[in-house]
Fold this protein.
Amino acid sequence: MSRVFMEETLQKIRTYTVFLKDREEVITSVQLAEFKDLYVGNREFGNRISELFILDLYILELEFGIFPLEIIDEIRYLETGSDKSFTKPPTKFRRKPLKGLWHKHYFAANFVIPNLENCWGKSGLNGVLEEVFNELPSGSTGKDFASALVHEHFEKPLETRSENKKVTGEWIVYAKYEGKNYYLCTGIHSADDKSIYSRIVDNCLREFPFLKSIQPFSKST
């Protein structure tokens, strides 16, 4: 996730400076509120989504082209207990500093190749190409090769992972408090847990101060 620096003006309009790959972007809390209204609207869980989470959605769309509703839909599934989600079930963090929080994968088109690579094994795409080539009957055309490759090693693996709810992506990080979910930020597998924790402490506890009473924010934990 891109580095973010936050300032708060005397008018209580927070300003975030986002360091992207090739430039800096300055985003205000007013812009984020408008962005949230566009994609979250008046959904009941909207008041349980942190401003940091909305900032992450903004960055993910700006930098990586991930459509915000792909992530909001995953929240909807969590809220309703829907079985429409084909990503892995919610998981509780077991190690400090995030111990006590939860995460749920969301899926976007950007994650198709990583999911396929999980199916292809150590040999990777080269092994898949060789396997398809060797299994085709003599006299097969390039069209036959492409059809077998797409069906057996692209479509079928994704369908199987989807049916088994093993599709992976990046994370929605959230806390549970009095029976409700509070959506704090997004995370990536390569991110350091300490950095995720620091982002949450620095940005989310001012919005949801009651979370200080639960793990991992409670001083008694």
In short: Residues 109-163 form one domain. The chain has two domains: 3-108+171-213, 109-163. Residues 142-163 form the longest helix (22 residues).
